[in-house]
Amino acid sequence: MENLNELLLTSIHVSIEAGFRIMEVFHNKIHISIKRNLTPVTNADKLANEIIVNKLQPFNIPIISEESKNAPYEERRKWEYCILIDPLDGTKEFIARRDEFTVNIALIHNNKPIMGVIYAPAMDLLYFAAPDFGSYRLRNASAIINEATTIESILANSTALPDITTATYTYLVSRSHVNHKTRKYLKTIKGDKEYIHKGSSLKLCAIAEGSANEYPRFGKTMEWDIAAGDAILSYAGGKVQIYEGAGLLTYNKADLGNPEFIASR
Fold it and tell me: Quick one: 121 and 52 in the same domain?
């Protein structure tokens, strides 16, 4: 894709722009409603979605977003490229005013994630990845991105992943979505192990940077929850593999839900 770096740069900038607007809501009034699938959505989700979609539409790449009406599969199945957006991943953490929520943007090519951007606004922490250079983390991202006009200038201030090594095999556990199957799986693991509770797509980023080793997910997730983190983890040497099945996760499927999976390095 000829303009991949331009798309990445725009995605980074718009994730931070959306993050600023999310934080304005976070520090003021959060309006909550319940969607048809019985999950919560806030005014911040909708505001961030509008900002991101408007900034990415000029690339003329079809967009799939959690907060938009998406094209039917008969149309989507013909797409070589598409963009997956979760404008506010970790809505429950956001509502509880915890800081583990993110903006997720991923580029999909032939059902595989080839670019990922994850921004945690409350932490001002950015993760991103693309095929030409791998996976990176950028702390204090907003100030640096405000001055950065090229991918090269962002890379110069970022840290290549992985850059952390764990002394003990460490499992990530969802802060809001732990079920009986997950507990049972973790109990069967022998030997020394540690657990970290974390919300949103930051779990996949933790594995990408090396601060954790494995994230088993047996509850419901959607493609936009995982795609950006999948790309970041993949370019950092990890993988998101279908549990008790063959192969890696794929995207832009007829059913936009994900099967159970294990993310690991």
Answer: yes
Structural domain boundaries, residue 211:
170-264
H helices present in 38-102, as ranges: 43-56, 73-76, 91-95
Q: Are residues 141 and 237 in the same domain?
A: no
Contacts of 187 (CB under 8 A, 6+ apart): none
Question: Tens digit of pLDDT per residue, the chain (265 long)?
Answer: 779 999 999 999 999 999 999 999 999 999 999 998 888 999 999 999 999 999 999 999 999 999 999 999 999 999 999 999 999 999 999 999 999 999 999 999 999 999 999 999 999 999 999 998 999 999 999 999 998 889 999 999 999 999 999 999 999 988 767 788 988 888 888 889 999 999 999 999 999 999 999 999 998 999 999 999 999 999 999 999 999 877 999 999 999 999 999 999 8
Radius of gyration, alpha carbons of the chain: 17
- For residues 115 and 187, membership in a common domain is answered with no
Same domain, 124 and 71: yes
63 and 139 inside one domain: yes
How far apart are alpha carbons 87 and 119 in whole angstroms? Answer: 10
pTM of the model: 0.96
